Amino acid sequence: MKLNFKISSLHFLVGVVTLLFTYMIYDSYIQTQKKDIEKKLEKVLNLNKQHMEKSLSNIEKTLNSKKDLTKKIHLSIHKILKKNQNLTLDKIKTKMKNDFNLESQQLDLEIFLIDSKYKTTKSTNSKNISRDLATISKGKESLDSLKNKNQFVYSKEIGVDFLQYSIKSYSYSKLDKSSFL
């Protein structure tokens, strides 16, 4: 019986040591995997951060390079509308595209007329009619900054569509007491 007890105790001790050893290997494996995952995740995050910074830098360069052209186009439209507000925005858009050769530069143009309540009343894009700029803080802020007629301002609002790879910048001017371009 004593020998049987010693053998059973030895089996039990070997089993406990085996389980302990297996647990230590498993725990070491888990810790190594966590460190590897953290390193890989950090690498991916840094890569995405660099990509986003590069994209934002490219967007800023693109917008800055088009500021003068945007101002010229905007002021031309403003001048046309001051002379004749009965012209359709689509005709003005076509004229601007031709005058400034926008298609060859792969640029598009949208024209909005905005009332004193910050709602779009006319637009070259029908989806934007009745758009409420009062809900867009940067748009409302830009419109509020216009104190004088004929004053021009770039909005701090920028639209970026990564799916269509397009960037929209906005500029505003005051046509009269109750409307904006």
How is this fold's topology laid out?
Blueprint: H1 2-65, H2 67-83, H3 89-99, E1 112-115, E2 120-123, H4 137-144, E3 152-161, E4 166-176, E5 179-180
Antiparallel strand pairs: 1-2, 1-5, 3-4, 4-5
Record keyword descriptors for this entry.
alpha+beta, 5 strands
3D architecture notes:
With 181 residues, the chain is of the alpha+beta class. 55% of the residues lie in helices and 17% in strands. The chain has four helices and five strands, in the order H-H-H-E-E-H-E-E-E. It has helices spanning 2-65, 67-83, 89-99, 137-144; strands at residues 112-115, 120-123, 152-161, 166-176, 179-180. It has a five-stranded antiparallel β-sheet with strand order 2-1-5-4-3, sandwiched between helices. It starts with a helix and ends with a strand.
Quick take:
By secondary structure, this protein is α+β, with helices and mostly antiparallel strands. Helix content is 55%, strand content 17%.
Strand content: 15-25%
- Name the helix and strand elements from N-terminus to C-terminus, one letter apiece: HHHEEHEEE
| Average pLDDT taken over every residue | 81
- The strand count comes to 5
Estimate percent helicity.
Answer: 55-70%
N-end to C-end Cα span:
102 Å
